[in-house]
């Protein structure tokens, strides 16, 4: 699916949530969408938890082998 179409669908979902549910529903849909995006990236293998954790030495070395 084209990324423009995905963006259109996300924008429409946020617009409907904002229109019918108010600002609180808008924030809830946006937050859950971001959480789903992050979970999807982890599930697809694009991200690993080690990518966000620095070593104690502070030199930016990875904690383990990839």
Describe what this molecule looks like in 3D.
It is a single chain. It contains one helix and no strands. The protein has one helix spanning 3-44. The radius of gyration is 17 Å and the shape is elongated.
Shape, principal axes of CA atoms = elongated
Report mean pLDDT, rounded to a whole number. Answer: 81
Please tally the helical runs, counting DSSP H or I stretches of 4 or more residues. Answer: 1
pLDDT < 50 runs, ≥5 residues? none
Order of helices and strands: H
What level of helicity do the residues show? 55-70%
Strand content: under 5%
Please specify the SSE layout and strand pairing:
Elements: H1 3-44
What attributes characterize this protein structure?
1 helix; 66 residues; mainly alpha; elongated
Q: What is the compact description of this entry?
A:
The chain is mostly helical. The protein has one helix at residues 3-44.
């Amino acid at each position: 699916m084209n990324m423009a179409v995905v963006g259109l669908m996300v924008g429409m979902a946020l617009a409907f949530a904002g229109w019918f549910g108010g600002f609180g529903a808008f924030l809830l849909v946006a937050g859950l969408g971001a959480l789903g995006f992050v979970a999807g990236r982890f599930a697809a293998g694009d991200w690993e938890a080690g990518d966000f954790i620095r070593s104690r030495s502070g030199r930016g070395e990875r904690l383990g082998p990839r």
